Amino acid sequence: MSKKETIAVFFGGVSPEHDISIVTAISSVIRPLELDGRYQVLPIYISKKGIWYSDSSFKKIETFSGGGISELLDKLKPVSVTFDGGLTIEKPGLKRSKIKVGIAFPAMHGGNGEDGSLMGLLRMANIPFVGCDMPASVIAMDKLLAKQVAEANGTPVVKYEYLYADAFAEKPDKIIGELEKSLEYPLFVKPTHLGSSIGISRVSNRKELQNGIEVALYYDNKVLVEEAVPNLVEVTVPIIGNEVMMPALVERPLINDNNVFDFDTKYMNSGKKSGGKHGSQGYSELPAKLPGKLYEASIDIARSVYKAAECEGIARVDLLIDSKSNTIYFNEINPMPGSLYSHNWRKSGISNVELVAKLIELARQRYEKHKKLEKTFSTNFLKQF
Amino acid sequence: MKIVVNNQLINYSDEGKGDVVLLLHGWGASLQTFDAMTNSLVRNYRVVRLDFPAFGGSPRPTNSWSVGDYADNIIGFLDKIGIKKVAVVIAHSFGGRVTIKLAGEGKLKPGKIILIDSGGIRHSSSPRQRAYKLLAKTGKQVFRIPGLNKVGDAARRRLYQGAGAMDYFEVGDEMRETFIRIINEDVRDIAANIQHPTLIIWGEDDKETPVVDGEIFHDKISGSKFKIITHAGHFAYLDQPDEVMKEIESFLK
Amino acid sequence: MKYYWTCYLPSYPKVILYMLQNSEYRVGDFLHWYYRTRDFRKVMKRRQLIWTAKVKLLGLVELLIILAVLTVAWLSVSLSIWLSILILLLMPIILVYAIVIPLWAGRALIQRPKEKRMIAKATAKLDKHPAKKIAIVGSYGKTTTREILKTVLVEEFKVAATPGNMNTPIGTSRFVDTLDGDEDVLLFELGESTIGDVRELCEIIQPDLGIITGINEAHLESFGSVENTISTIFELKDFIDDSHIYKNSDSRLVRDNTIKDDPKSYSKKGVAGWCVDRVDVSLEGTKFTLSKGKKSIIATSKLVGEHLVGVLSLAAAVADDFGLTTKEIESGLKNTQPFEHRMQPYKLHGAWIIDDTYNGNREGVEAAIRLLDQLDAKRKVYVTPGLVEQGNRKQEVHENIGKLLAGVADVVVLMQNSTTQFIQRGLESAGFKGELQIIDNPVKFYTHLEHFVAEGDIIMLQNDWPDFYE
After folding, report:
1. Using CA atoms, how far apart are residues B61 and C445, in angstroms rounded to an integer?
2. Which candidate, A378, B56, C81, C470, has a CA 20 to 30 Å from the CA of A120?
3. What is the model's pLDDT at position C48?
4. How far is C39 from chain A (nearest CA, A)?
5. Superfamily of domain B2-252
């Protein structure tokens, strides 16, 4: 057998988006990688309890969709990880195997994975990995921080305020009063760190605002409150690239029942049953039909934020457009879009197999670039002791 | 929609205008099992449904709960969303148990009560046995809901998990304890205090809470009406939706 | 020898049944395949064994054979332990030969005489049948020709045609048995793989009109030489006057064996006085005009590819001969549809897939590459495992495919096998600048095609390759 390079695909995780991550990893990463054929794919599944497992059956969605996953996990032993100047995964069991990971492909959504923590680990291991690096992931996964970065970059954002759990517990009325003074209803209340739409409320009065903040605080210690955009058109722009960026098509998702941007969940619900046309039809307008220069302007803004937040590899930039005033606001960045947004890339002329190949190439480029910057430091500091 | 009630996150839905109808689901189910019923009721009522903590979109409580805790949570919830008067409570299985507790102890004074295959009668078989049986059954039933059987596998699984049906032995000791506490609490004597007009609906083939239980409640709740639905099991409102809806409508007239 | 142990796997008897079924119980083909197989774990990859009554019966026979061999081996222990070991070592081979015997016996004693009676009956029935009988002969393009003719002629006539691949004497006889007797036109597809095949079929059919659709190196192994193929196909002349045989002059080997300006030769330029003009090929279909004297036909078809202009013209000419009006011919041509897995375009995630997987001959490949060249696309992808049965021309044929592809395709996807290196060499020698992918698991590739495509692609899937040949 020829020795192929091992790509470790990380998915699952302690996050509300655990299941979405499984779908992303298996259908949009592992399968195309296997079809590409150049790599050995090592699936690393992180359970809801945060335990790392690896088993070849994880390459199939049936393992997770058919029930019986908990029984399987009971039988399996967790993997162990060695930092040996790289990353080596050791699978326990009768035939103990040590697998040296050549490249990592994080396919995780939400906290503890998409938020930069896994990227930090992979940086420490000093191996190339796909997608945004740690700083960009940290910025992207904090809705408030991302807005502040965009603002500093000169990109319009909707008017917002934020609050912390401790302060709110102390003086809720004072804080609500201040929010009402500086912002105008209707408002959106969001936990700052969560992906997808979990914990987000749209509120139109004081009572709802109070309840919305409580819900957001249930999930997070920091809450973002922002004004709703009138005449709203939401669009999203997936981008790949490091220094050189390549945007896909501007896509306009349809709004769900709760008037909250919830595209990834839509994907889950729509499933793949609809003749393979999921996403591209019925759930979104692709490409978005935007009047005049708005289409190009959306891409420009998305690119500018992608760069400002130092995104690399892949990310999806969500924008809010006031269709009367033609103002485009930056909303948020998703460093690991659900299913890589492969339906959009395909429509843009990039097949699933090509997409993962490109992402791996970008990961290598970045790794090589970083390597060039590395310098060894020798000091005499320790000698004095 | 979500709301926090005494540090417990509650997922709920609030649709329509008019008098309030509160729908309370069974153990292992979720508010979604009332989708069809809501679609009929929402034409004339404001229909409020919630997921009991540990089910559907409501996370499980951090400690073990009794029926009383669940009942108090409902009171807190109604207060929080500003509902003062509940015209009708329609409750299934475990929801029925909670309703009997609420109404029998005077915590809630609904205009009318409809109990469907209600829980609350303690039987002599071991709780463990019954736990297995009930969970196996409810799990299956949840996916007979129209619409739900069409959703993607992944979503279905997520719902399944959320419903707690699949992960019963994974949910942790608190939930297991909660379950044991709940099925050991017999509410027939509390039911005797109920003075509100009550309709009791039962599936003829109900094996989880047999028709005998219904007869006991019928006997205990003075002036109650008792309707047995043929060709229906524990989930009478899913097995014979039209039949059950007809009974509900004529009772509410 | 390294894999001889795989003959002792529990799945081995099942693999034998599978090979029998997939070689259609032809003993020669089966044994040929058997001796080429090394690792018996790798045989049952593409399809499943279907448990027909025949398979079950043969399975039972296998079981009996194994039991018998084991008993003999056990009994011989007392004679010599070495004899027993030898018997056990030979068991897989004994099994293969022993299973062939009942097949062979059944064929000679029951099937053959029955077939002879059927053929005689069919010959007599056809002799009295008033219909015009058209014999379609050729190494390729027969099914397409038959279907197009049928589609056009049904505008006016009651037409019957040999279904599927029932093109052997026995298949033809079965078909004749189903005829009502009042058909106006009968279309026969003649299968040929050895000398005398066309003659044998013509003796049954007694055709009035012949069509030679093309000649190439197909079945070279059974014919022995191209010359034999040519003479077999032209056996048609012994039954029909040359002036009643249409010949596809787009095919080089047909052209070379036809007199110059044969009035019955047809090609993409026209046929029998009809001239082709204004050809327009797209994935939506093919359009052109046909004119002869004052008559003019606007031909539109859903069929895709310039290579079909000749046969569409032929159908128009035959229909005109048979007295159909221009309107009827135009309407008949309009009804022609792509055949399943033959230049059949469909959309997948915004990409055009051209399914040409049933097309496994050189002419088809050339036509497909030409079509790919003519079409506009963001990315042109050509997928093929190569061609089978090319005999000693294997290298030349595949290098040529590579050369043709080099200037046309952006991506070439090859299914790893013995032809891969030749196509690769052809690509290299013609300076291919695109991307080359070599796939070692074709099933996986075809079933996950959606992962390989994107909007704006045209993907030509050429010739699927049954494991029979692997």
Report:
1. 48
2. A378
3. 76
4. 16
5. Alpha/Beta hydrolase fold, catalytic domain (3.40.50.1820)
Confidence of residue B127 (pLDDT cuts 50, 70, 90): low
Same domain, C319 and C201: yes
- Looking at residue C465, what is its pLDDT? 56
Strand pairing report for B112-116 and B88-92:
parallel
The confidence score (pLDDT) of residue A268 equals: 42
Tens of pLDDT, residue by residue over C311-345, are: 999 999 999 888 888 899 999 999 998 888 888 88
Give residue C22's domain range. 4-109
In a domain? residue C428: yes
Chain A positions in Cβ-Cβ contact with residue C378 (cut-off 8 Å): 349
Tokens of A91: 């699978």
Name the residue among A35, A280, A349 with its Cβ closest to that of C451: A35
C209 DSSP β-pair partners = C134
Last residue of a domain, one of C109, C143, C161: C109
With beta carbons under 8 A apart, name residues in chain C contacting A343.
Answer: 349
pLDDT at B168 over 70: no
Distance from C-alpha of B205 to C-alpha of B201, rounded to nearest angstrom = 12
Does the structure show a pLDDT above 80 at A200? Answer: yes
Chain B closest-CA separation from residue A262 CA (Å): 13
**Structural domains for chain A:** 5-131 (3.40.50.20), 160-227 (3.30.1490.20), 230-335 (3.30.470.20)
With an 8 Å Cβ cutoff, are C454 and A34 in contact?
Answer: no
The verdict on whether omega for the bond into residue C207 sits within 30 degrees of 0, i.e. cis, is no
Residues of C with CB under 8 A from a CB of A: 348-350, 378-379, 439-441, 444-445, 448, 450-457
The CATH number of the domain holding residue C413 is 3.90.190.20
User: Does one domain contain both C90 and C216?
Assistant: no
Q: Predicted confidence band at B132 (pLDDT cuts at 50, 70, 90)?
A: low
Residue C329 lies in a domain: no
What single DSSP character describes residue A158?
A: -
C315 and C167 within one domain: yes
Tell me the shortest Cα–Cα distance from A23 to chain C, in angstroms: 15
In whole angstroms, give the CA distance from residue A144 to residue A161: 9
CA angle, corner B54, sides to B48 and B57, nearest 5? 55
Give, rounded to a whole angstrom, the gap between the first and last alpha carbons of chain A.
53
The CATH number assigned to the domain holding C161 equals 3.40.1190.10
Backbone torsion region of residue B104, taken as left when φ is above 0, otherwise alpha when ψ lies between -120 and 50, otherwise beta = alpha
The residue among C288, C323, C358 that closes a domain is: C323
Which two structure tokens, joined as six digits, stand for C403? 């050369």
pLDDT for A363: 97
ipTM summary value: 0.75
Q: Cβ distance A21 to A43 under 8 Å?
A: no
Whether the model pTM is above 0.80: no
The answer to whether residues C105 and C154 belong to one domain is no
Residues C199, C229 within the same domain: yes
Judged against a pLDDT cut of 90, whether residue B240 lies above it is answered with yes
In a domain, C282, yes or no: no
| DSSP summary character for residue C238 | G
Determine which helix (DSSP H) or strand (DSSP E) holds C203, and give its type and residue range: helix C197-205
pLDDT score of A256: 52
Q: Would you say residue C469 has pLDDT above 50?
A: no
Domains of chain B, by residue range, sit at 2-252
Torsion sign across C-alpha atoms C379, C384, C387, C392: positive
Report whether B187 contacts B67 (CB < 8 A).
Answer: yes
The mean pLDDT value of chain C amounts to: 85
**B178 Cβ contact partners less than 8 Å away, ≥ 6 residues apart:** B54, B61, B64, B65, B66
- Residue B143 pLDDT level (bands cut at 50, 70, 90): low
Q: B2–A201: do the CB atoms touch at under 8 Å?
A: yes
- pLDDT confidence of C116, banded at 50, 70, 90? confident
